[in-house]
């Protein structure tokens, strides 16, 4: 699934829920693989999980217009998570591993995703 412009970040959108769940799995498995020093597997898994959430019409990742990409009630939260996951994906492309700081960012994003999911559960 490529992300189209105006991706609705609301719990009523099944694609949004799928993205949130996918990012949760991405973060948890990436942290596990990094802690086990399986960097190649981290790289391959991250690529597999994240590539399907690239913007449909943006050929250059530096030119993503997040204001058009994400809309809806949780657009701000998803934009923040997405930007950081994209930055980490680029880091993996460049050096095939992540630093301790990068792992802390993954964990922070994992907490943000868990907050989103807890908001969904309370609705």
Structure description:
With 123 residues, the chain is mainly alpha-helical. 67% of the residues lie in helices and 3% in strands. It is built from 5 helices and 2 strands; from the N terminus they run E-H-H-H-E-H-H. A two-stranded parallel ribbon has the order 1-2. Helix 1 packs antiparallel against helix 2, helix 1 packs antiparallel against helix 5 and helix 4 runs antiparallel to helix 5. The longest helix has 23 residues. The mean pLDDT is 86.
Brief rundown of the structure:
The chain is mainly alpha-helical and 123 residues long.
Write the layout of secondary structure elements.
Blueprint: E1 7-8, H1 14-35, H2 39-50, H3 66-69, E2 70-71, H4 75-95, H5 100-122
Parallel strand pairs: 1-2
Helix pairs in contact: 1-2, 1-5, 2-4, 4-5
Please name the defining characteristics of this protein.
single chain; 123 residues; mainly alpha; 2 strands
Largest sheet: 2 strands, parallel
What structural category do the secondary elements indicate?
A: mainly alpha
Any idea how many domains?
1
H and E order: EHHHEHH
């Amino acid at each position: 699934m490529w992300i189209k412009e105006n991706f609705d970040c609301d719990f009523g959108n099944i694609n949004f829920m799928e993205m949130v769940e996918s990012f949760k799995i991405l973060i948890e498995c990436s942290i596990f693989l990094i802690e086990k020093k399986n960097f190649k597997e981290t790289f391959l898994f991250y690529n597999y999980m994240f590539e399907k959430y690239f913007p449909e019409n943006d050929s250059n990742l530096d030119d993503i217009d997040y204001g058009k990409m994400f809309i809806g009630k949780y657009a701000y939260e998803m934009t923040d998570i997405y930007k950081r996951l994209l930055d980490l994906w680029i880091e993996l492309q460049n050096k095939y591993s992540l630093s301790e700081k990068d792992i802390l960012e993954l964990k922070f994003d994992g907490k943000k995703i868990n907050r989103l999911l807890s908001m969904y559960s309370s609705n």
